[in-house]
Amino acid sequence: MMKKIDLKCKIITPLFMGGAEQQPELRTQSFNGLFRYWFRLLGGSFENEKRLFGWGGEKANKGIVSINLKEENNKQEFQLQQQGQGYNYLGFSLRLTNRRGINASSSFEISFIFHPTSTEDDIKKFLCAVWCAFYLGNFGSRSRRGFGSIIVENINGDILHDFNLKFICNQNIGNWLKSQLEYIKSLNYWQARRDIPYIFENLEIYKFNRHQSNYIQLLNSIGEEYKNFRQKLRRNEWEKRIWFGLPIMPQGVFPILDHEERGRRASLLIFKIIKFNNNYEGFVLFFKPNERHDFKFLPDRAKIKFDKKEIFVDANWWQILDKFINDYLKNKNLITKVYP
Fold first, then answer.
1. Overall average pLDDT of the 71-90 stretch
2. Cα(340)–Cα(333) distance, rounded to whole angstroms?
3. pLDDT at residue 10 tops 80
4. Residue 279: beta bridge partners?
5. Angle subtended at Cα 150 by Cα 148 and Cα 152, rounded to the nearest 5 degrees
């Protein structure tokens, strides 16, 4: 017998998701891709990933979870407007291309239908990845810079009785994030995967200490600090910006990988906005390499093309992110660590 779980969701910060022509729309492929991504960061096994999400390679198979989306009538299209230097800095590419998105406060429903062969463990593993995607990450373009934040307002359906992961915050948000991550870890499904970050050994979460009345002011405050730090980097430190994500625009800095192919890398920093009881809270997430799990941001001996020169990547450049967190934000008393 198939099991079904329904989530009613609300968009907290504008969501820029769309098809080939970038028209604003919710896409099941995009959601499924983010759920798969967070499943990897959780340390879900490759075999379980193929089982849950499907596989398109040799011996291709369809995953055991189907996703349905239903948009509500309150959907409003949105175009980024001039709102403040920090806000504009975080969303610069969206304004540059006049990208249209789905406005904050729009709602939708997302349903997960599990194949009759699904076990309770399958359902739990999948929902853990879904929780991480909603509450650690964001969706769509500029997601790592705070856009596309979504929260769950209601959950119903075939909920497992012995599964205590909470999709709706009912307490201090920082404490809630920590308690839910500790519960997910306690399920003992996870093991670090080589060369990618592992949530339970690499993730640090910091609460942004400035309180604002809406998401625009909060993103503007975070964006101003982010902009100020990056603009203070000396000219000979520009190559370290690769750790904020690649490519670097408008400089056009890409990593050069095998066969001279240009690559992309997602930033190890995520800005997250969560709304609870009409209050907006901002968080900074940082995936940090360490001795317990020294994942690879780029392959060994990778090069970047910078100022018409090819430069080999120094693995220690990641410390520029540590400097942003500890020598800049923390020294200004702008953040408080909430996890671990």
1. 79
2. 18
3. yes
4. 276
5. 170
What tokens does 96 get? 């540059």
Q: How far apart are CA 243 and CA 321, in angstroms?
A: 7
Tokens of 310: 């090819």
Distance (Å, whole) CA 198 – CA 184: 13
The confidence score (pLDDT) of residue 158 equals: 93
Containing 124, the helix (H) or strand (E) segment is helix 120-135
The letter for the amino acid at 217 is Q
Long-range pairs, 46-49, Cβ under 8 A, ≥24: 46/193, 48/122, 48/125, 48/189
What was the pLDDT predicted at 59?
Answer: 67
Which DSSP letter does residue 86 get? Answer: H
Residue 308 pLDDT > 80: no
Pair 110, 67: CB distance under 8 Å: yes
**Across the strands, what pairs with 185?**
none
Q: Which has the closest alpha carbon to 212: 225, 203, 221?
A: 221
- SS3 percent helix, strand, coil of the chain, rounded to 5, is 35, 25, 40
* CB distance 52 to 63 below 8 Å: yes
Rounded CA separation 79/102 (Å): 8
- pLDDT of res. 16: 94
Section 204-221 average pLDDT: 92
pLDDT at 259: 45
**What CATH class does 3-186 carry?**
alpha beta
In the chain, where the domains are located: 3-186, 201-339
How much is the mean pLDDT over the chain?
88
